[in-house]
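Can you make up a polypeptide sequence alongside its tokenized fold?
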Amino acid sequence: MPPERLIGWFGTHERDLPWRDPACTGWQILVSEIMLQQTPVSRVLEPWRMWVERWPVPSAMAVEPAGEVLRAWGKLGYPRRALRLHECSKVLARDHGDRVPDDVETMLTLPGIGDYTARAVACFAYGQAVPVVDTNVRRVIARAVHGREQPGNPSRRDLDDAEALLPRSGAPRFSAALMELGALVCTARNPKCDNCPLVDCTWVRRGRPAHTGPPRKAQKFAGTDRQVRGLLLDVLRGTTGSVDRAKLDVVWTSDTAQRDRALDSLLVDGLVEITTDGRYCLAGEG
């Protein structure tokens, strides 16, 4: 995989994403990485702009109640990400001089920061030559290097494969290009191989053999506990203060057991609290 060819392609096809601005801080890039987990870029653009304007540094978020951060999270999905980011902001403000550390090991000690996020921030915010592996990167490497349509289960080998491809110079830009290729060209379905700069792709040379492993499971949303949790949170996000249980009960009447289970899970996750008078509110607003 010639890095200069991929970087050259990236120079022409790179999307103009606001968190790629060289002026962005480690905190602002961390916010983008948390928002982008399991969420399309198009849904993140406007919320990210609003967040970094409202909370340009960790301490600005740290002083807010958790419920306000959850309210601002809106419909991005997986709201525990917002709660973890709020927890992280407190630690950054208190222990790290109101900035995101520049090394992977320290970042991994922060609340809610996993291996991918730590590496992504180290790479894209601080220019470190560390491998960064997301779903797109795993798919590009599976095809271009190993000749498989789809990658296997995530493993340490993914990092080793990505690290072996890093050029001596320009590693962060190469990593961004690898991700961009997976997002725009080497897509999971209907890859645009005729537009790919990796003309030596092993998968294409082998005739694009079909995936022979377990079928990929499509994630549904309608009718799931995730949908019910979202409806319950919508009520609380749209309210200042607390609400009676009756206002929550009406959002999902087709399966009361599922509604109760979803509400219990929000309480367990710390996203929702019960006030002393038995009402419900977002975390930190009781």
User: Anything to note?
Assistant: The chain has a mean pLDDT of 94.
